[in-house]
Amino acid sequence: MSTTELGVGLISVGWMGKLHSRSYDRVNYHYPELGLRPRLIIAADVLAEQRDFARDALGYEQVTGDWREVVAHPGVQAVSITAPNYLHREIASAVAAAGKHFWIEKPVGRTTDDAVAVADAAEAAGVRTAVGFNYRHAPSVAHARDLITTGQLGRITHVRGRFLNDYAAEPNGALSWRFQRDRAGLGVLGDLMTHAVDLLQYLLGPITDVSALTSIMIPERPLPGAGPSTHFAVIEGGPTAPVENEDYAAGLLRFAGGPVGTVEASRVTVGPRCQIGFEIYGTEGSVAWDFERMNELAVCLGRGGPDHGYRTVLAGPGHGEYARFQPGPAISMSYDDLKVVEAALFLKSIETGEQLAPSVAEALTASHVVATMARSAENGGWLPVPAAVPAGAGR
Ligand SMILES: NC(=O)c1ccc[n+]([C@@H]2O[C@H](COP(=O)([O-])OP(=O)(O)OC[C@H]3O[C@@H](n4cnc5c(N)ncnc54)[C@H](O)[C@@H]3O)[C@@H](O)[C@H]2O)c1
Question: 383: how many CB neighbours lie within 10 A of its CB?
Fold first, then answer.
């Protein structure tokens, strides 16, 4: 079918900026029916080596050190905002004011105020958005959602959610922007818990009340040197500075429809490496999923019989977007593939005018939950989550 070019701009060429760019490259191959074909016009980063990479490896036609040039570029109709959290609000507000659609990374700002400002700007401009809640797009998560929404698990009674990660388990890991309040906002609550909360809300609906605790487990880290030093950089010796936001958070949850449960997030686990997952229990069955085994879903249907218990269902063409990537079952999909699904939802949202991708309004609901958890952690008391709006409403 004929396609129209969609001029794309990128703001920040870090881990996520590179991944967004690869997804634009791949999206028409996996979704040939799309009426839009991304053209990589201009990328911005403050670091020369990232700009060089954007031009030479990613194929952007132009590069700049000033993100405002991306926003102002007449050939750009859609912008990927993959900058650190402290820039989300200013950049997204400018992009929306310019009437351009945007795909922004979670958590959408440092605070709920930032997320409100971004959601309001998108609404006022009438632009389509996408947010990097990529774990939603795993085919096994889609299968779990189908089992829940079709009632095959019965009434959902309780849940255990988690995101246990080791990216900051190394005490000499550099004190990147993620550990500083003025640049990241919350710690693991903003960074990883937002993913876990979004996944739970996507599967079970809004979280209405929380009680939480938080802890900083590695209180000092080495200061980074010059250059693109991420939290993966290990620095021996040299000056250190305090970690300003939480390494660990745990919460008790109540959902609007009646389920209750727990959720936990850590960036300092030794053992679990990237375990975002859930175990969801209903009166007629249960499902369990762990991103470290992304293509497997543990499913138990029914309450009796000699073979009662979990069995492993491998992802296959009947599950979510799997068939876009592989023709037969049990051929592993990857993290990068989830981002291609997200790119497709973003482009389809622009093409049809219908918000299909996870939206900034949904990111705002996750932001309210984690902000309420942070407030609750001051004394552990129960607090209601303000303005809970059903997640998944855009899908
Ligand atoms: N969806 C996910 O699974 C996921 C995973 C990782 C990160 N993220 C999110 O993506 C965002 C970026 O994280 P990352 O890991 O890619 O960060 P990163 O540290 O790898 O890269 C950040 C980049 O921003 C650039 N930058 C800094 N200031 C800038 C400015 N003023 N103008 C232009 N560029 C500037 C840096 O030079 C660097 O290249 C964060 O909001 C993070 O929460 C999401």
Answer: 18
